[in-house]
Specification:
The complex is a heterodimer of chains A (111) and B (150). By secondary structure, chain A is an alpha/beta fold. Chain A is 40% helix and 33% strand. In chain A, α1 packs parallel to α2. Chain B has 3 helices and 5 strands, in the order βααββαββ. Classes of the chains: A alpha/beta (111), B alpha+beta (150).
Chain lengths: 111, 150
């Protein structure tokens, strides 16, 4: 199982495109990339989950950890997700109250 | 919730080798759910819940010695019901705080939102029945999803 991660830029935001399955095996790769971005000075981050086929609680933990890091730098972390099955995961765990979730990268980067 | 594992030929069984094996377990279960005509949304619910239980079994239900018994998953899928039983041989208590997601659950400046322990919340939110049986020989997480049939 592979997790694809590509990083780009939209305005002042780092945009992390994630593709594949995020679970306990692959989540460390995403965690490392997000830590790297923050340590390099990117504190406004958009994580695009449109290419994610699977997400579990370990992946949620990585996103929460990243949110904590960017907030420590007075930054932001927004998500892009329109997939009902993935949105359901955020709703059940109450994380829709924690993460701004947008339909497009442009919306997320403009928020 | 009771599965007669040894007596029922329709029950499938798989040992959980390591974290990397979870994708293959999901692939097998997804194929069977598809074969039973389960809709993709309900199938996804099952796969997330099963992964949560298997993750916990792998992280906390195994002593990591070579001869320790591996955690196992047993499952049975019909057109109207899917049952999953994830069994480990640990005497550690299964709880919200034992799941890997708990570690990331520090305060993030949102006092009205409890963070962490997502695994148990997800299993309970996605499945129709969730039971955690803790005994002297280990823990079995029992998950049941009922499908609406047209």
């Amino acid at each position: 199982m592979e997790l694809g991660i590509d990083v780009g830029k939209v305005g002042s935001h780092a945009v992390v495109d994630v593709k594949g399955e995020i679970d306990v095996y692959t989540a460390p790769k995403l965690r490392e990339k997000l830590i790297e971005l923050v340590s390099e000075g990117s504190s406004d981050i958009v994580v695009n989950l449109e290419g994610v086929d699977f997400l579990d609680s370990t992946g949620l933990g990585v996103l929460v950890g990243a949110l904590k890091r960017v907030k420590a730098h007075e930054g932001s972390l927004s998500l892009v997700c329109t997939q009902d099955k993935i949105l359901k995961i955020f709703k059940i765990t109450g994380l829709t109250k924690v993460f701004p979730i947008h339909d497009t990268v442009e919306d997320a980067a403009g928020s | 919730m009771d599965l007669q594992i040894e007596q029922n030929s329709s029950v499938r069984k798989q040992a959980l080798a390591n974290k990397a094996s979870l994708s293959d377990v999901r692939r097998q279960i997804r194929a069977e759910l598809n074969g039973a005509g389960v809709d993709p949304s309900a199938s996804f619910d099952c796969l997330v819940a099963v992964t949560e239980a298997c993750t916990n079994a792998l992280m906390h239900g195994h002593g990591h010695a070579v001869d320790d018994p591996r955690p196992e998953i047993h499952w049975r899928i019909d057109v109207d019901t899917a049952e999953f039983y994830v069994q480990d041989y640990s005497t550690q208590q299964w709880s919200k705080t034992s799941h890997p997601s708990w570690d990331a659950g520090d305060e993030i400046g949102e006092p009205d939102v409890r963070i962490g322990g997502f695994g148990l919340d997800l299993m309970r939110g996605l499945m129709d029945e969730v039971e955690i049986r803790i005994g002297p020989g280990g823990t079995t997480v029992c998950l049941v999803k009922k499908f609406s049939t047209a």
